[in-house]
Design goal:
single chain, 264 residues, alpha+beta, Arc Repressor Mutant, subunit A, 10 helices
């Protein structure tokens, strides 16, 4: 099959896909035994072609996605009647930043860092499918641990977790006077509340949240888990090896009181 025909197929797949399209998915879909390397080459060529068009192809959540451009977002919000103020609250961003940089970890470990009850916030993040269960900690009570999902990557426009900025990156942007981007302000946690040496404290709150209603996102977890019933969780000691737990019907620990902080 000619390359231009393959590009046309991939372009249509990008339009039809509800989730970012991965090179492996293309390899399995395209005819003629196309290799993953060739699939990436086609995607990159299309990405380059779209640089001069009114739509764009972006790399997100370890895949490629056909996307609208930011400069037209105001008209899209008006047409879809989206509330541009629909965002994660700052307490939710604080909690999410801790989970993102220190995952997997338990709710109690999050609360030990934040210093306040976070059960309601963790429940809200689970409902939005931004985080998911990541097994149980092998300590007394076997508390549930949490990790971020693919939806987290899509929500913040990241290819993978290694794309999360470092403190030095953010300082460079501030010194250069770079205008605030759509990724600035994901989670800011005051230095006096936690240690400056923790990586999650140095970056996520400055990346910037976007409305969930504006994102074409997937609820797919970034890790696989296996079935296991959930029991009430006591306070957990230090981190240990994770043990699988089912994501179905799982909410933050049933014995924990609801957070006084508002839900998003």
């Amino acid at each position: 099959m000619e390359r231009e025909e393959l590009k046309a197929i991939v372009e249509n797949l990008l339009l039809a896909a509800e989730q970012p399209l991965t090179p492996e998915q293309l390899r399995q879909t395209l005819p003629g035994g196309v290799s993953e390397k060739e699939a990436i080459s086609i995607l990159e060529e299309l990405k380059s072609d779209y640089q001069s068009r009114n739509l764009q192809i972006i790399e997100v959540a370890q895949g490629y996605q056909l996307s609208t451009r930011h400069e037209y977002s105001e008209w899209i919000r008006t047409f879809l009647k989206l509330d541009k103020t629909t965002k994660l609250s700052q307490p939710s961003l604080d909690t999410l930043s801790i989970i993102a940089y220190k995952q997997p970890l338990t709710r109690q470990e999050v609360e030990d860092i934040r210093g306040v009850d976070s059960s309601g916030i963790v429940r809200n993040l689970l409902e939005k499918k931004i985080i998911a269960p990541a097994g149980r900690k092998k300590v007394p009570g076997r508390p549930i641990m949490y990790q971020t999902t693919r939806k987290f990557l899509e929500y913040f426009g990241l290819k993978d977790l290694s794309d999360m900025p470092t403190l030095e990156d953010l300082k460079d942007e501030e010194n250069d006077g770079t205008p605030e981007s759509s990724q600035q302000s994901l989670f800011s946690f005051a230095d006096e509340e936690v240690g400056d040496d923790e990586p999650w404290n140095q970056t996520l709150s400055q990346m910037g949240s976007k409305s969930l209603d504006q994102e074409n996102v997937t609820s797919e977890s970034s890790g696989s888990v296996s079935p296991e019933p959930v029991a009430p969780e006591p306070i957990a000691p230090e981190r240990a090896v994770p043990e699988p737990v089912s994501p179905e019907s799982i909410s933050p620990e049933s014995d924990a009181p609801d957070s006084a902080e508002p839900k998003d």
